[in-house]
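From: lab user (bench 3)
To: helpdesk
Subject: output format question, protein + iron/sulfur cluster

Hello, I'm new to running complex predictions and I'm not sure whether the block I got back is the full result or only part of it. Here's what I submitted:
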Amino acid sequence: MTQPFWETKSLAEMSQAEWESLCDGCGRCCLYILHNEETGDVFETDVGCTLFDAKKRRCRDYENRLTRVSDCVQLTPENAKTLSWMPDSCAYRRLANGKTLPDWHPLITGDPASVERAGIAVSPDLISEDDIDDALLESRITKTR
Ligand code: SF4
Ligand code: SF4
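Helpdesk reply: Thanks, we reran it on our side. This is the complete output you should expect:
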């Protein structure tokens, strides 16, 4: 049995298609995140980026996201290891840190819905950052990352 590409290649060695297939579509990198500067803690909210379509768990303008949203970050093999605000479940972060894919990952199950069943996907009922005052963001914290 041949080993899957994510076990034999580094992130930098993967083709574009392989790289894209690592994304499980959870949507958690498109949530509004709060940082505690003193402790370094990172908090996840149930507030989505202005371009995030929570029902489809997709960016509404993926091609132009980096110019339209100033703090949207392009993931690369180089920064995947250091973006500490990314969720632990994210395949890019996991592989960059020497871990393998979790058993619920669609590349292993063959089923994109396994992300929802594992409780990793964001809720379709997120609110948009456009619809909330900045002063209320702390009240939307759902978990610590
Ligand atoms: S957190 Fe990682 S796996 Fe989830 S949508 Fe973002 S890039 Fe894809
Ligand atoms: S611009 Fe798009 S890809 Fe970037 S955080 Fe917002 S929804 Fe996600």
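A quick orientation on your result: Residues 16-21 form the longest helix (6 residues). Let us know if anything else is unclear.
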